[in-house]
Amino acid sequence: MKQHPFLRAYLAGIAVPTVFVLVAFSVFCVARFVYQVPLPIERVIVFPLALIPNAFGAWNMLFVALHRRRYLPLGIHGALLPFIIAPTGFLIATSLGFLATSEQGLVWFGTIRIDYSHLAIVFPTVLVVYYLVWKYLVGFLNELLGVAA
């Protein structure tokens, strides 16, 4: 099964975030339609549904391509992905008017405020989660599919 390594890498990459995004989407749907949360969640959920799985798949393909030339552990490679996703999400959210910046922090939809001090705690946590997800989950799928052995 050595044919189409990049296709297998893409499929191994999109499998993990697709499951998590579907769970998050279900939670958002319940919050919006059952508990009547007044935020326009349906406008926000499109970004993670469309971009995150594809970014994981493309990032895993890049890992397979780079793995042949030089070695970088999969967990560290995966922990670099938030440095691309976060600025992209910030750019899209600010350009569409979902997110605004203030002196104290970020403001979502003009109502939810996130202090910069909280972001300083959340971003390293996200890096650790991405490292673990890539090392164990995506790594398991890569091994299962025979990619980047």
Q: Biggest sheet, open or closed, and with what strands and sense?
A: 3 strands, antiparallel
SSE topology string: HHHHHEEEH
First-to-last CA distance: 12 Å
- How many strand segments? 3
Structural class: mainly alpha
Q: Assess the beta-strand content as a share of residues.
A: 5-15%
Within the largest sheet, what's the order of strands?
1-2-3
Shape, principal axes of CA atoms: globular
Structure annotation, total helices: 6
Structural domains: how many? 1
Portion in helices = over 70%
Residue runs with pLDDT of under 50 for 5 or more positions: none
Mean pLDDT: 87
Q: What is the gyration radius calculated from CA atoms?
A: 17 Å
